Amino acid sequence: MNKIAHFIVYSKVAAYVAALLCVVVWVLDVLGQGRGVVPGDSFELLLPIIAGYLSVKVGRELSFGDVKSGLPATLFFMGCALAPGTIFVGNDAAHWVLFPVACYILLRTYRDRSAMGRYFLAFALVGVECMLAPTLVMVLPLVVLCGAFMDSLHWRTFFAALWGLLFPYWAVGSVLFLIDRTGLIAQWLGGVLPPVSAVSVVPAPQFWAGLLWALLLVAPGSVMIMLDRTMRQQTSAGFRMLIAVLVLMLAVLFLFPSFHSVLFPCVLLDASLIGSLFFARGVTRGKNIYLVMLLIGWLSFLIYAYGTTV
User: Fold this and answer.
1) Cα separations in angstroms, 113 against 110, 153, 157, 166
2) pLDDT at 167 over 60
3) CA Rg, the chain, in Å?
4) What is the pTM (predicted TM-score) of this model?
5) Of residues 90 and 253, which shows the higher confidence score?
6) pLDDT class for 157, splitting at 50, 70, 90?
7) 65 CB contacts (<8 Å, ≥6 apart)?
8) Which of 156, 162, 247, 306 has its CA 20 to 30 A from that of 39?
9) Nearest-angstrom CA–CA distance, 185 and 155
10) Which whole-number Å values give the CA distances from 133 to 16, 121, 128, 230, in the listed order?
């Protein structure tokens, strides 16, 4: 049991094995849809692989882990394997980049009283994301409140975030006015409130299996972060912001299930960073047992997710 837990936490091979599993699952999912694997589809696979790698780099840069291991990527790839139908979606690929980059920019504003430019840039990206999915404009701008955990939110950064959020709309609205296509603005406004059919969408079992996996990672990690008084203040502030952002995204997923393909990859990235800290900070018998049980649960989720879709 200890050897299995040690391998998952400290070995980079575990991350490579999980990444290979993602490739296998992706191929099986594509073949299960009755279509062949074409070169253009490889972008859908490349994006989560890059995201997993960058999760490790960001964790090291922001001191989110005490060990130089690929544990965040391992946990992320394992979550991707549970929900390939949600993760590998080419039409929503832009959300893979926009929201995580915006959160990364906010994480770099710790106690920076002159972070107006970073807030503007972060929420310009959020504004672009809200333009792609109009309903998100009702919820996603609330991410600005998470800046309070970084001690960088004040009236100047708040208004910088507001201008950044409005900037994409101003730019696109100006172009539409110049080309006399202002009717598209009304069409976009009509998409802010989702239809009843979109709210009542029931995602596939793969989504629920992946979501339960994320919650099992986040629960112990969040409790440890809240109770740990020895953690560096900047690291603790960053994790508290990630927890707040995750709660916001989960609220969006429960209110608007039709957006599971938009935000769920970001949920998995966030949960992997939070969950990896729980296992990386201090090795105990209880953590090893929980990790092995988590691995058994992951195998059960995998069988359930694919057993119900076959």
Assistant:
1) 9, 8, 8, 22
2) yes
3) 20
4) 0.88
5) 253
6) very high
7) 59, 71, 72, 276, 277, 280
8) 306
9) 30
10) 33, 19, 9, 41
* Unique residue bearing structure tokens 């504003």: 109
Q: What is the pLDDT of residue 21?
A: 86
Question: Six-digit token pair at 302?
Answer: 């995998």
User: What is the sign, positive or negative, of the torsion defined by CA atoms of 260, 264, 267, 272?
Assistant: positive
Amino acid at 262: V
Contact between residue 304 and residue 209 where contact means Cβ atoms under 8 Å apart: yes
Query: Are 84 and 129 contacting, i.e. CB atoms less than 8 angstroms apart?
Result: no
The yes-or-no verdict on residue 184 having pLDDT over 90 is no
Range of 9-13, 89-93, 123-127 with top mean pLDDT: 123-127
- State both tokens at 259: 């957006």
Tokens of 34: 């009755």
- The two tokens of residue 194 are 């989702």
Q: Which residue has the tokens 């990630």?
A: 242
One-character DSSP codes across the chain: -HHHHHHHHH-HHHHHHHHHHHHHHHHHHHHHTT----GGGHHHHHHHHHHHHHHHHHHHHTT--SS-S-HHHHHHHHHHHH-HHHH--GGGHHHHHHHHHHHHHHHTTTT-TT-HHHHHHHHHHHHHHHHHSGGGGGTGGGGGGGGGGGT--SHHHHHHHHHHHHHHHHHHHHHHHHTT-THHHHHHHHTSSPPHHHHT----HHHHHHHHHHHHHHHHHHHHHHH-SSS-HHHHHHHHHHHHHHHHHHHHHHH-GGGHHHHHHHHHHHHHHHHHHHHHS---HHHHHHHHHHHHHHHHHHHHHHHTT-
pLDDT digit string, tens, across residues 1-46 = 677 777 888 788 888 888 888 888 877 776 766 555 555 556 667 7
